[in-house]
């Protein structure tokens, strides 16, 4: 490979933004024979219950960006992504791209020849590899409005044209600068036409049409997924030579509408993923606010101007609401997956540092993906709960949208502790019900990180895999031993994965309930620091009443395979697809065909709105009833319902097929209430309710509503407040008793809660129902507090050169 070709290949593998220093893979540690402790310490109890927590694990959570073909084939890799900054301005007609800030804003191209382009391009080769390995493809398409203009040596900040700069590509193209003047300020006023030409939705549509002709449509084995660009909220940095302004709320909405619609026009079966933000701040701020507040600092982060111009809403809920509005207006969905990247911001974790303190930090920092009690040990300094937070945003603002994380990396994939963290992350993805994930960037097939994937996808070299139906698994101390469990649909074996994240051996009991007729022993497979070059098939583990006690070596991953046995417990079958009737503005009646009992009689049916794996039932009826009325719905709102049967042993059936309905418009109201949570600090909050009278003038009024959770009013103003259980009443304060037709008044209060802080329901004014347009209540997970990210020190991806 020529030096230029090597550079081209390397730059493509650059993620969200460059780190100050590249990550350099180190040799595998030569630990020698591990010294076995004289006696293992007592470990936390592990419990597996196969009757509950059951939900499908989408195999797309085991994806990798740019995985090499041999590893993809071995893992039966479900999905592979073509992504990163270099794909933002990729021109499929020229097989060329601009590297952006990752490499001096240079135009680069692949040595695939030009005679047959776009046939034979690097993107084509990517798709063709995936077809050979049976892997679904994610291609990143440009949404920035520009693409590379030519297969040439142009760059965004020519030193001869724009003056001296602090850095340059001295080895290859000395005239190409980094766009930073010697005084530390950015070069401005450069000409985007130096490197790029305009490319709008029609450009993307043409590419998708070409791919359809070459490989078939998405539903016929063609490209299945399209990322809507890469980290658009950082364009002002990563591609500032063509997009120096931050991408604001409106630009993100309009560009998503146009680009995603173009994809769907060309291939209606294709799935889109957006907005593809770089991290937690991407959920809070638009790119415009990130740039503006990064320059202004101070109070800007608590009241950013782009957010203020859009009703004070954080970016992610606003974006999802706009995607929902598009579907309601046009009758088709243009956003299928809510996609956001995550790189742990703890010092040294994602960048691959591997001193003992960082190893411990890496292994406990996976809790930020789910744990409400884990305060992120970085500049974020608050609970992240990344996957539940994303689900809450979707449930509140655009139900039915799937969840994706198309870039993440916990670092040190060339070391055993990185493999442990990677295995822990994959277990969390399955347990938490994530729909798709792709690791950035690929481990070498000999790296410990690759073995973490093998433990889930091919632990025995013969296709042995972790189960595809998650069941409940819990550890008394997840920081010491984490445990994940799932049942395989093919043979009904129960797979149990135990990860020892400590540097000492631990002996712990493992109880397994909810299975009968289990064979007397489980197969055992282990990967660990004793031998980082292979997975060991150990002696079978004897079972007593389905459970066992075992010693888990330090820094190890152990997988148990419990065969089904001859008298395998049978679950109830899925109930029939529900039918909706009597659909009103706030309620609907659902009726379904009865489930067929398995090993035990059917006891009840539970109705879920959305995914049963991540939500509580909205209605429960005892069998043999097969109908339920769901109340408390919002008018003119789309809902998806599924039904699950439970038997007398507590085992859950698979969920029914979904039924989708839209509630009726609300009857004409004599009042409206605009309820808003202005601050939520977790356990406490401040809210206001603005009442607008749509009926005859009032001389005296009383507002009523009901909390949906355990919220309590602790202090109120602009009225006399009282609360009985969940019911709250606010009587006028005298001075604001007169409320003319069309007149408004605002009341407010401080409150406390535990658990979730969902919006109140059933607003009334003098006993008559009020409509609640544009409710901006706190999400089920309190909105994160915005912080200034530490600029260049924020972890946004890897550089691999």
Automatic annotation (TrEMBL):
GO biological process: polysaccharide catabolic process
Keywords for the protein's UniProt record, in alphabetical order: Carbohydrate metabolism, Glycosidase, Hydrolase, Polysaccharide degradation, Signal
UniProt domain Fibronectin type-III: residue ranges: 574-666
Keyword Ribonucleoprotein annotated: no
InterPro entries xref list: CBD2, CBM2/CBM3_carb-bd_dom_sf, CBM2_carb-bd_dom_sf, FN3_dom, FN3_sf, GH, GH44_cat, Glyco_hydro_b
GO function terms (MF aspect): hydrolase activity, hydrolyzing O-glycosyl compounds; polysaccharide binding
Superkingdom as given in the UniProt entry: Bacteria
Keyword match Ubl conjugation: no
UniProt xrefs under Pfam families: CBM_2, fn3, Glyco_hydro_44
Domain CBM2 as annotated: residue spans: 664-773
Region forming the signal peptide: 1-20
Name of the protein in question: Endoglucanase
Organism the protein comes from: Streptomyces sparsogenes DSM 40356
């Amino acid at each position: 490979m020529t030096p230029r070709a090597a550079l081209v290949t390397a730059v493509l593998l650059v993620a969200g933004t460059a780190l100050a220093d590249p990550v350099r893979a180190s040799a595998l540690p030569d630990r020698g024979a591990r010294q076995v402790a004289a006696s293992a310490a007592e470990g936390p109890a592990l419990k597996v219950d196969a009757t509950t927590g059951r939900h499908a694990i989408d195999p797309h959570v085991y994806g990798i960006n740019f995985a090499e073909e041999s590893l993809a084939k071995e893992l039966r890799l479900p999905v592979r992504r073509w992504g990163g900054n270099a794909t933002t301005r990729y021109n499929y007609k020229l097989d060329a791209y601009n590297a952006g800030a990752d490499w001096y804003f240079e135009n680069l191209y692949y040595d695939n020849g030009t005679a047959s382009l776009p046939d034979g391009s690097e993107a084509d080769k990517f798709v063709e590899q995936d077809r050979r390995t049976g892997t679904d493809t994610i291609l990143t398409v440009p949404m920035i409005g520009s693409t590379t203009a030519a297969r040439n040596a142009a760059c965004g900040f020519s030193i001869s044209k724009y003056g001296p700069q602090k850095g340059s590509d001295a080895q290859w193209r000395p005239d190409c600068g980094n766009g930073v003047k010697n005084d530390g300020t950015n070069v401005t006023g450069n000409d985007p036409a130096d490197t790029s030409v305009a490319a709008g939705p029609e450009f993307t549509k043409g590419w998708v049409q070409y791919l359809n002709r070459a490989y078939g449509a998405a539903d016929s084995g063609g490209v299945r997924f399209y990322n809507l660009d890469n980290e658009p909220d950082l364009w002002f940095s990563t591609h500032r030579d063509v997009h120096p302004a931050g991408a604001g709320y409106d630009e993100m909405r309009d560009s998503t509408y146009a680009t995603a619609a173009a994809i769907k026009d060309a291939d209606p079966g294709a799935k889109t993923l957006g907005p593809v933000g770089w991290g937690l701040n991407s959920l809070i701020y638009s790119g415009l606010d990130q740039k503006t507040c990064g320059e202004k600092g101070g109070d800007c982060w608590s009241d950013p101007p782009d957010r203020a111009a859009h009703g004070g809403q954080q970016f992610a809920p606003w974006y999802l609401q706009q995607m929902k509005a598009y579907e309601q207006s046009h009758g088709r969905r243009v956003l299928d997956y809510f996609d956001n990247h995550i790189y742990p911001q703890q010092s040294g974790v994602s960048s691959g540092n591997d001193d003992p303190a960082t190893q411990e930090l890496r292994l406990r920092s996976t809790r930020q993906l789910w744990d409400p009690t884990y305060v992120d040990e970085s500049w974020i300094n608050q609970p992240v709960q990344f996957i539940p937070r994303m689900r809450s945003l979707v449930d509140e603002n655009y139900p039915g949208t799937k969840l994706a994380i198309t870039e993440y990396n916990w670092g040190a994939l060339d070391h055993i502790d990185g493999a442990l963290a990677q295995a822990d992350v994959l277990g969390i993805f399955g347990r938490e019900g994530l729909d798709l994930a792709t690791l950035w960037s690929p481990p070498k097939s000999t790296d410990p990180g690759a073995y973490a994937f093998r433990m889930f996808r091919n632990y025995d070299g013969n296709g042995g895999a972790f189960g595809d139906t998650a069941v409940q698994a819990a550890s008394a101390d997840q920081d010491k031993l984490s445990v994940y469990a799932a049942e395989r649909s093919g043979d009904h074996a129960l797979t149990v994965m135990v990860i020892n994240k400590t540097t000492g051996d631990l002996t712990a009991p493992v109880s397994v309930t909810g299975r009968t007729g289990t064979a007397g022993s489980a197969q055992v497979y282990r990967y660990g620091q004793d031998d980082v070059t292979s997975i060991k098939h150990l002696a079978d583990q004897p079972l007593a009443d389905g459970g066992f006690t075992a010693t888990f070596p330090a820094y190890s991953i152990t997988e148990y395979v419990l065969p089904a046995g001859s008298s395998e417990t049978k679950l109830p079958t899925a109930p029939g697809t529900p039918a909706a009737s009597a659909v009103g503005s706030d309620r609907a009646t659902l009726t379904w065909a009865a489930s067929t009992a398995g090993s035990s009689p059917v006891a009840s049916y539970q109705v879920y709105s959305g995914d049963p794996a991540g939500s509580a039932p909205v209605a429960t009826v005892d069998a043999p009833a097969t109908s339920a009325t769901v109340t408390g719905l919002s008018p003119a709102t789309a809902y998806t319902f599924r039904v699950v049967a439970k038997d007398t042993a507590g085992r859950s059936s698979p969920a029914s097929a979904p039924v989708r309905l839209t509630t009726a418009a609300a009857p004409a109201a004599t009042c409206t209430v605009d309820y808003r949570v202005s601050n939520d600090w977790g356990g406490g909050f401040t809210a206001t309710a603005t009442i607008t009278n749509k009926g005859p003038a009032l001389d005296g009024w009383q507002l009523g509503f009901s909390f949906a959770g355990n919220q309590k009013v602790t202090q109120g103003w602009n009225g006399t407040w009282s609360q009985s259980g969940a019911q709250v009443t606010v009587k006028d304060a005298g001075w604001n008793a007169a409320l003319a037709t069309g007149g408004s008044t605002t009341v407010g209060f401080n409150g406390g809660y535990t658990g979730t802080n969902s919006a109140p329901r059933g607003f009334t004014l003098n006993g008559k129902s009020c409509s609640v347009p544009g409710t901006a209540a706190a999400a089920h997970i309190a909105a994160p507090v915005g912080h200034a990210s530490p600029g260049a020190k924020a972890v946004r991806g890897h550089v691999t050169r």
